[in-house]
Amino acid sequence: MIQKKVDFTTLLAEDDDDDYLLTSKAFEGSPIKSKLYRVKDGQELLDYLLRKDGYTSPASSPVPDLLLLDLNMPKKDGREALKEMKNHAVLRHIPVVILTTSNAVEDIVQAYETGANSYVRKPLGFDQYIETIRAISYYWFKIAEVPPTKD
Amino acid sequence: MPLFGRKRDHGNFGLVVEASPSGMIMVDRGGKITLINRQVEKIFGYSRGELLDRKIEILVPHRFRAKHTAYRDSFFKDPQLRFLGAGRNLTGLRKDGTEVSIEIGLNPIHTPQGLFTLASVIDITDRIRSENKLRETAEALQRSNDELEQFTHVASHDLKEPLRKITAFGDILAREEATKLSPVGKDYIERMRKAAERMQDLIEDLLLYSKVNQEPARWESIELNEIVRGVLVDLELKITELKAEIDVGPLPRLKVDKSQIRQLFQNLIANAVKFHCKGRSPCVIIRGVEKSNGLAEITVQDNGIGIDEKNISKIFKPFIRLHSREEYEGTGMGLAICHRVVSRHGGRLTVKSKPGEGTTFTIELPVSSRGVDE
Q1: How confident is the model at residue B83 (pLDDT cuts 50, 70, 90)?
Q2: Long-range contacts of B311-320 (CB under 8 A, 24+ apart)
């Protein structure tokens, strides 16, 4: 029997400050509490997950239970970062939800092919934002069974 | 019949050849030049004396000479009149070594001295230059059109981004800061959010409009009745609310881009219901016939407010609205999208209307449309 976690960690890979603000506000309004950490591009994301550079401390950069990944980011974009994660023996177990403005069919298809666990468009209004974050949290933290994270 | 008759009349023949606006070269069975006119001197830069009795291949660029000799032999074996129109565009070699684009017509001439070939030669350098110029202009135009389409597409995508944030932060303001605002402040926020919503609709429609030409169409065989049924389900709320009556006759089977044609009927039927006369339930009649010329004609007729004669020419243009927002909601893109969809299918969309009585849109579509881009 797997012990159910009570405190959750979400990592948001998002270059846009406004979207970070909206997402963190939406998390505040969600009944399922989760600590939110943020990286600003694909390179930072991999550094964080691989505990490189400024991310060596497990206390300040814990292994996330869920990754919210934007596709269009500078340096290394979300598509490349996802590919590298899913090719990594350990990182591939982290559930990835793509959170993007793109609704291009090729992006959706490619994301799932690369191993994304879900694909969600950034909602238009803030009410929908809250609704979306609430639904994602509820599903990934309360319903889905996921591989245990190692720290 | 050969141009100059079978019998050779030396005096007149020479005059006619000399006066011809085309270059004229007579060649014997062995390929030797026996007669030329002034035009040939002008085209190739040789004097008469330099060409007479020489092999015709002197006027052919080196790389084509071997082929030309063989071609000439076969022509003499089976001489057939070849008119200029059927002639090929060829390249001639001038005395100064430059090449000239020419068109050639061949004409077998039987004389007491045997079979000759009279070739008429036209310098088509200018024609080719203007053809090229025309093609280049057309290509440049196409390119700039494509770029404009591309621009619209990208711009409308990028415009959505900041708009999404205006909406979201407007929402937060209204949600979390409302208690600190005066009624006037709340009203301002409400106006701002409404405007953002409207802009969202405009951008969505602009995207839809540019998508009609941007995305490759997928041609598939569809039952038009099925498409219309789907549209009516989507519009059910409005139809019930307005007690609209929609009468759909048997419609033809078409080979079209399904999503675009669905959009077309969605817009036309939604308009027919929307622009109804106050106090009169909307009644929409949809009929279709397949005509003998490979075209299907579908009409969408309503009993609505109609369109004033002077506005008819405007309605298919993007962002044209004939009514205030308070009277009728909308972005003014609906009919522009319709028009584009029909053109993309190689068809025609026309309208007849009487103010106060109703409007009829007529769609002519090729039954098996392969569109205009293939």
Answers
A1: low
A2: B312/B351, B312/B353, B315/B351, B316/B349, B318/B206, B318/B209, B319/B202
Q: Which residues of A touch B169 (CB under 8 A)?
A: 18, 22, 126
Of A71, A72, A124, which to mutate for an interface test with B (greatest number of B Cβ within 10 Å)? A124
Give the model's pLDDT for residue B219: 87
Coil vs helix vs strand at B177: coil
pTM confidence score: 0.62
When pLDDT is averaged across residues B235-252 and rounded to a whole number, the result is 93
Q: Which of A27, A73, A120, A126 to mutate to test the interface with B (most CBs of B within 10 A)?
A: A126
Structure tokens at A125: 């209004």
Query: What is chain B's mean pLDDT, rounded?
Result: 86
ipTM above 0.90, yes or no: no
Window A:105-144, CB contacts with B under 8 Å: 122, 124-127, 129
The rounded distance, in Å, linking the Cα atoms of B275 and B332 is 13
Rounded to an integer, the average pLDDT of B205-233 is 86
**The residue to which tokens 């009277």 are assigned:** B327
CA pair distance B259, B337, nearest whole angstrom: 12
Tell me the residue ranges of DSSP E strands in chain A.
Answer: 8-13, 34-39, 66-69, 96-100, 118-121
The predicted-structure confidence for B101-140, as pLDDT tens digits, reads as follows 998 888 888 888 888 888 989 999 898 889 999 999 999 9
Residue A101, min C-alpha distance to chain B (Å): 8
Give the residue from B83, B73, B60, B80 showing the smallest Cα distance to B29. B73
How many CB atoms within 10 Å of residue B190? 12
